[in-house]
Specification:
Layout (H helix, E strand, L loop, with lengths): L7 E4 L6 E4 L5 E3 L5 E4 L6 E8 L9 E9 L6 E5 L2 E2 L9 H7 L7 E3 L10 H12 L9 E10 L1 E3 L2 E3 L6 E3 L3 E2 L16 H31 L1
Parallel strand pairs: 5-10
Antiparallel strand pairs: 1-2, 3-4, 4-5, 5-9, 6-7, 6-10, 8-14, 11-12, 12-13
Helix pairs in contact: 2-3
The structure holds zinc ion (ZN).
Zinc ion binds next to loops.
């Protein structure tokens, strides 16, 4: 089997196996042990990888998400997908929003190989976290712990379903492609730079609304 040139290979710091990743993304995953290496920052960060201990259904089809635990309280968690959905976003909540908002899915976890790849590294996930929390891009985010978790999914008639949230998506829109290591995306995936620019525009819009509200409040207080 030939190895596509797009795959980045590195040695796993835990088992000395070969880490796999996507070009342009700073998160490498070990296919055989519960280890990931995030190289998006100045120095590499070794992450353990996890899955729910009592999965409703075990499956080789998995989606990876970051589970951030915030300092404000034990139950304060935020799920941010480490995969991407290609093409137009359908209306409704994303998988991360469903797991975060509806019942705050916070299962006991066990260390396990991730068994899927990622299209978002720790730095990109933190940018999304800041946006979701509505906080400025300076200073550390209020995170006490971050875990890289994969959730079992099912594919039926081309539709992927995550059983806990009931979230569904056309399976061929998930990137990196499910169960097809090394396959390039059917359409160009957003680059880290374009995602950062998009988030910056969104953050700017939020800041603008906050400034407007502050002005309005002042007028009210004067009046
Ligand atoms: Zn390993």
């Amino acid at each position: 089997m030939s190895t596509p040139a797009r795959i980045v290979s590195r040695t796993c710091p835990s088992c000395t196996g070969t880490l796999e990743g996507q070009p342009g993304h700073g998160l490498l995953v070990c296919p055989t042990c519960p280890t990931a290496l995030d190289v998006s920052g100045e120095s590499p960060i070794r992450l353990a990888t996890w899955r729910p201990r009592d999965e409703p259904a075990s499956s080789s089809c998995r989606l990876a998400l970051f589970l951030f635990r915030l300092r404000e309280g034990e139950a304060n968690i935020l799920w941010i997908p480490a995969f991407r959905v290609l093409g137009r976003q359908k209306p409704g909540r994303s998988l991360g929003e469903l797991l975060t908002a509806d019942g705050r899915y916070d299962p006991p976890l066990v260390e396990a190989p991730l068994a899927t790849r990622c299209a978002r590294d720790l730095r990109q996930a933190t940018a999304v976290l800041r946006y979701r929390l509505g906080i400025e891009s300076t200073g550390p985010p209020p995170v006490s712990e971050v875990r890289l978790v994969s959730l079992a999914c099912r594919i039926k008639s081309g539709t992927l379903r995550e059983p806990v949230s009931g979230w569904t998506c056309e399976a061929d829109r998930i990137w990196p492609a499910l169960g097809a290591p090394g396959v390039s995306p059917p359409t160009p995936a957003p680059s880290a730079a374009s995602e950062a620019a998009r988030l910056a525009r969104q953050a700017q819009a939020v800041a603008e609304r906050q400034r407007t509200w502050a002005k309005v409040k002042k007028v009210f207080e004067k009046g």
